[in-house]
Design a protein that fits this description.
Blueprint: E1 6-8, E2 21-23, E3 26-35, H1 39-52, E4 70-75, H2 90-114, E5 121-133, E6 153-158, E7 165-166, E8 169-172, E9 180-183, E10 189-193, E11 199-201, E12 204-206, E13 209-220, H3 224-249, H4 256-266, H5 271-287, H6 289-297, H7 300-309, H8 318-330, H9 334-342, H10 345-352, H11 358-372, H12 376-384, H13 387-394, H14 400-413, H15 417-425, H16 428-435, H17 441-457, H18 459-466, H19 471-477, H20 483-496
Pfam families: 2OG-FeII_Oxy_3 (PF13640), Arm (PF00514)
Membrane topology: Lipid-anchor
Domain Fe2OG dioxygenase: 122-218
Length: 505
C-alpha cells in the first residue's frame, strides 16, 4: 500500500488562496491551485463557448480513436505538440482570446518564480482546448498521464459548469509514487502544473464538467519590436476570424479595404496569419457573390494558388484552407474558374487528392468539383492531369466529405465519353455502388447522381451499372423525399437506354 492519501477540499471562503502542494523529495513547488476571480466572466462566457464547441476525434493516450470531447482553439505547428486528428476550430479561438493572454501571463509568472534559471525565457502556448467531460462511456475523465516532454508548464481552468458531481484533478508526487492529492475545482479555479507532473482528471459521475486546458513551452524572450509585431499579427488574426464568424452566421459583405487586408495576410511570413486569412476568405466567398468579386479584385487568387504549392509543416492547415477558399471562389463563377485554372492550380489540386491530410484531400476534391461544374475546358484540364484514378481512390477515403466531393467531381467529368470510360476502367462503378449503401444520405445521393452521369455517358458503363445489382437500394431510396430525386433519375436513365434496373442477376 502507498502512503496515506492526501485530499484538498474546496474552501468555502472565495477570498482565501489554496495551499500549494510540495513534493516530499523536492523543495520546488510542482503544482498550485488558486482562485482567479474570473467567476462572473466565466458564467457570462460559457454560453458562447458551448455555442461554438465542436469536438474533433483524436488519438490521445488510452483513448486512441475514441477521444471526441475536446475542441481545439490553438495548436502549434511543432510535431511534438500535435495530437493526431486534432483540428483547430477558429471560432473557439475568437471566444477564448480575451482570457488567454492574462492566464498565460499568470502561469508564466508562477513558473518563472520556480525556475529562475529560465529568466531569459517566456512561455508560449502550443495547445489550447476546451474539454467537456460527461457520464458517457469514454467521456468521464482522462487517466493518469503527464502532458508531454515538450510541455514546460500547463494550466487547467475550471469553467462554469452547472449541476455536475465528481470531477477535479488528482496529482501524484512522482512517477512511481502512490501518494497523491485531489483538488475539487470550482468555477474560476486555476490549476497550474510544472513540467512532467503526473496527474489525471477525476471521473464525472453526473452532469457535465467543462474545462479550459493550455499547454505551454518555454521560448527565448523576444525583443520588444518582435513582440509588437506579434501583437499586430494577433490583432489581424482576430479581425479575420471575427469576419469569418460573421459570415458563417449571416451574410457578411466586405469592402475593398478589408479584402486588401486579407490579401496582405495571405502573403504574410507568419503561418497563423496565412491560415486564418485563407479560412476567412473561404467563409466570405461562400457568403455572397459580391464578396467573391471583391476578394478576387484584391489580388487574392495568385496568393492562394501559391499557398497550394508551398511546402507546409506536418498537420498544417494552410494548403487545405487555401484549397477551400479556391473552391468557394469558383462556385457559380465562370470568370473565377477560368482565372484559377489559368494560374495553374489544377495540377496541384490533383496532387493534393493523394495527401495524407484529410483536410487537404477533401478540399482539393471540393475545388475540383466546383472548377469542373459547367466548364468543359476545366474538365479537360482535370482529366489530363491524371485526376480520374486519384478521385476513384478517394471514393474509399476515410472521411465522408472526401467521398462526397470525389463522387461529385466524377459526375461532372463523366459527361465526356472518353473520360467516362476511364472512370469505369478505374473501378469507380463498384465503389459508387458501395456508397449507395452508406449510412449517410448525402453519400447515397451523390453516388446515385454519379452513376446516372456514367450511365448517360457510355453504353458500356450503362451496362455495367445495370448489372451491378442497384435496384433494391434504389427502391429503398425512393421512400425518402430527398433521395428519391437521384434514385428516380438513375432508374429513368437505365430505362431510357433499354435496360431496366431489375431483376438483377
Amino acid at each position: 500500500m502507498g502512503q496515506k492519501r492526501k485530499r484538498v477540499w474546496t474552501f468555502t471562503s472565495c477570498c482565501h488562496r489554496r495551499q500549494e502542494t510540495h513534493y516530499a523529495d523536492n523543495e520546488r513547488v510542482k503544482v498550485s491551485v488558486v482562485r482567479t476571480g474570473l467567476e462572473q466572466r466565466l458564467i457570462a462566457l460559457v454560453p458562447a463557448i458551448k455555442e461554438v464547441y465542436m469536438p474533433c476525434r483524436t488519438s490521445y493516450l488510452d483513448a486512441t480513436g475514441q477521444w471526441n470531447i475536446s475542441c481545439y482553439a490553438e495548436l502549434d505547428d511543432l510535431p511534438d505538440a500535435m495530437v493526431p486528428g486534432a483540428v483547430v476550430h477558429p471560432p473557439m479561438a475568437v471566444v477564448l482570446q480575451p482570457l488567454l493572454d492574462g492566464l498565460t501571463e499568470r502561469l508564466c509568472t508562477w513558473w518563472l518564480a520556480r525556475h529562475p534559471e529560465f529568466s531569459a525565457f517566456e512561455l508560449h502556448r502550443v495547445q489550447t482546448f476546451v474539454t467537456r467531460y460527461s457520464v458517457h462511456r469514454g467521456e468521464t475523465h482522462l487517466t493518469r498521464h503527464v502532458d508531454g516532454p515538450h510541455v514546460d508548464a500547463s494550466f487547467i481552468l475550471q469553467l462554469h459548469s452547472e449541476r455536475f458531481t465528481g470531477g477535479g484533478v488528482r496529482v501524484w508526487d512522482s512517477e512511481n509514487s502512490r501518494d497523491y492529492t485531489d483538488y475539487a475545482l470550482e468555477t474560476g479555479d486555476l490549476c497550474m502544473l510544472d513540467h512532467l507532473v503526473w496527474h489525471q482528471s477525476l471521473p464525472v459521475t453526473s452532469g457535465e464538467r467543462w474545462v479550459l486546458v493550455v499547454f505551454c513551452q518555454k521560448r527565448p524572450k523576444r525583443p520588444k519590436q518582435h513582440v509588437a509585431h506579434a501583437e499586430r499579427s494577433t490583432a489581424r488574426c482576430q479581425k479575420a476570424i471575427a469576419l469569418a464568424t460573421s459570415a458563417a452566421h449571416a451574410t457578411c459583405t466586405i469592402d475593398e479595404e478589408q479584402a486588401q487586408a486579407l490579401a496582405h495576410m495571405l502573403s504574410s511570413s507568419g503561418m497563423d496569419e496565412r491560415e486564418r486569412a485563407a479560412f476567412t476568405v473561404g467563409c466570405l466567398a461562400a457568403s455572397s457573390a459580391s464578396n467573391q468579386t471583391t476578394i478576387v479584385d484584391s489580388g487574392a487568387l495568385p496568393l492562394l494558388v501559391n499557398m497550394l504549392r508551398t511546402p507546409a509543416p506536418p498537420l498544417s492547415k494552410e494548403r487545405g484552407w487555401a484549397a477551400a477558399a479556391l473552391a468557394r471562389l469558383a462556385t457559380n463563377n465562370s470568370r473565377n474558374k477560368a482565372m484559377i485554372a489559368g494560374l495553374g492550380a489544377i495540377p496541384t489540386l490533383v496532387e493534393m487528392l493523394s495527401s495524407e491530410q484529410d483536410l487537404e484531400a477533401e478540399e482539393a476534391a471540393s475545388a475540383l468539383c466546383n472548377l469542373s461544374a459547367n466548364n468543359e475546358a476545366n474538365k479537360h484540364l482535370i482529366s489530363m492531369s491524371g485526376a480520374v484514378s486519384a478521385l476513384v481512390k478517394c471514393l474509399e477515403g476515410a472521411k465522408p466529405k472526401q467521398r462526397i466531393w470525389s463522387a461529385c467531381t466524377l459526375s461532372n467529368l463523366a459527361t465526356d465519353p472518353v473520360v467516362c470510360r476511364q472512370i469505369w476502367r478505374a473501378g469507380a462503378i463498384e465503389r459508387l455502388v458501395h456508397l449507395l449503401h452508406s449510412d449517410t444520405s448525402k453519400e447515397r445521393r451523390r453516388a446515385a447522381a454519379a452513376l446516372a452521369s456514367l450511365a448517360r455517358g457510355e453504353p458500356s458503363t450503362h451496362s455495367a451499372i445495370s448489372a451491378a445489382g442497384v435496384r433494391p437500394v434504389l427502391e429503398a431510396m425512393l421512400r425518402d423525399a430527398e433521395e428519391s430525386i437521384e434514385a428516380t433519375s438513375l432508374l429513368e436513365v437505365l430505362r431510357c437506354h433499354g435496360e431496366k434496373a431489375g431483376p438483377e442477376h
